[in-house]
UniProtKB/TrEMBL annotation:
It comes from the Bacteria. Residues 1-19 form the signal peptide. Keywords: Signal. InterPro entries: Quinoprotein_dehydrogenase, Solute-binding_3/MltF_N. SUPFAM superfamilies: Periplasmic binding protein-like II. The keyword Signal applies. SMART domains: PBPb. PANTHER family: ARGININE-BINDING EXTRACELLULAR PROTEIN ARTP, MEMBRANE-BOUND LYTIC MUREIN TRANSGLYCOSYLASE F. It holds the Pfam family SBP_bac_3. This is Substrate-binding domain-containing protein.
């Protein structure tokens, strides 16, 4: 009985705090938490594709879009969403325990950036022997880096750290520039970061890794993140995602983001 009373007491004591957190959401603005220099996703000048998606959600909600800018990485969620400074994080991978995920609004895939006239231009899997002996850029600790190591490409890998202040460093851009100038023969990168950057480049191409069967998966579902107690807010965003999926896909395709089905098996045109 004492244990039951204690549990009930803790539950009741938690209720006001939960209500207080839920009340943090603005009803007069669509308040977005974002990195100011995470091109091509979010950029302070509004040119990122996640900025354009945020503007679309703002229109559908009938609310003006405002931003709380903070560099992504350690402390991002604590200093923005959990601090009540903003109400939604765009472009958040499904399954993270720091936030409550909405339904996913797109699924994308890792792929290989190569020069169109390269001998590696036809490579579409990391187990291809043609990759051996070629300098290949990859983000350290990313899922494809594990597969590359398993495929015997460790000595060919040229790593870059993604968790940097992107206001002063551009690791993905550096890898892509390396492919373009010949310093690297390929770069294995997350589609939403690489696809828009090479979309209109006459010399480069992005090939999705749709045929990988070993190691970590190459495709991931992308959601929005909201605070853990805010069920009603999540349901409202889920409804907008469901009703406007075609519009969302159009914005992403226009940006050059490679979209795949929910099982990572085929590209969505």
């Amino acid at each position: 009985m004492r244990g039951l009373v204690l549990i009930l007491g803790l539950a009741l004591a938690a209720q006001p705090a939960a209500a207080q957190v839920a009340d943090l959401r603005s009803t007069t603005q669509f308040r977005v938490c974002a990195d100011p220099a995470n091109a091509p996703m979010s950029v302070r000048d509004g040119s990122g594709f996640e900025n354009k998606l945020a503007e679309a959600f703002g229109r559908w909600l009938g609310l003006p879009v405002t931003y709380t800018w903070f560099p992504s990485g350690m402390g991002f969620i604590a200093k923005t969403l959990r601090a009540g400074e903003c109400d939604v994080v765009m472009g958040y991978a499904q399954g993270d325990e720091l936030v409550q995920n909405t339904n996913h609004y797109y699924t994308s895939v890792f792929g290989i950036v190569t020069r169109k006239n390269s001998e590696l231009a036809d490579v579409d899997r990391l187990s291809d022997p043609a990759l051996k002996g070629h300098p290949i850029g990859v983000v350290a600790g990313s899922p494809p880096a594990t597969i590359m190591a398993q495929a015997g490409l460790a000595k060919d890998m040229r790593g870059a750290d993604l968790f940097v202040d992107r206001r002063v460093k551009d690791p993905v851009g550096d890898l892509i520039r390396g492919v373009k100038d010949g310093t690297l023969d390929a770069a294995v990168l997350w589609g939403p970061l690489a696809g828009p950057r090479v979309k209109n480049d006459p010399d480069l191409q992005f090939t999705p890794l749709l045929k990988e069967t070993a190691g970590p998966k190459m495709f991931y579902r992308i959601t929005m993140g909201v605070r853990l107690p805010e069920q009603e807010w999540k349901r409202e965003l889920n409804s907008l995602i469901r009703r406007h999926q075609d519009d969302i896909n159009a914005i992403l395709r226009e940006a050059g983001v490679p979209l795949v089905d929910d099982y990572g098996k085929e590209l969505i045109q």
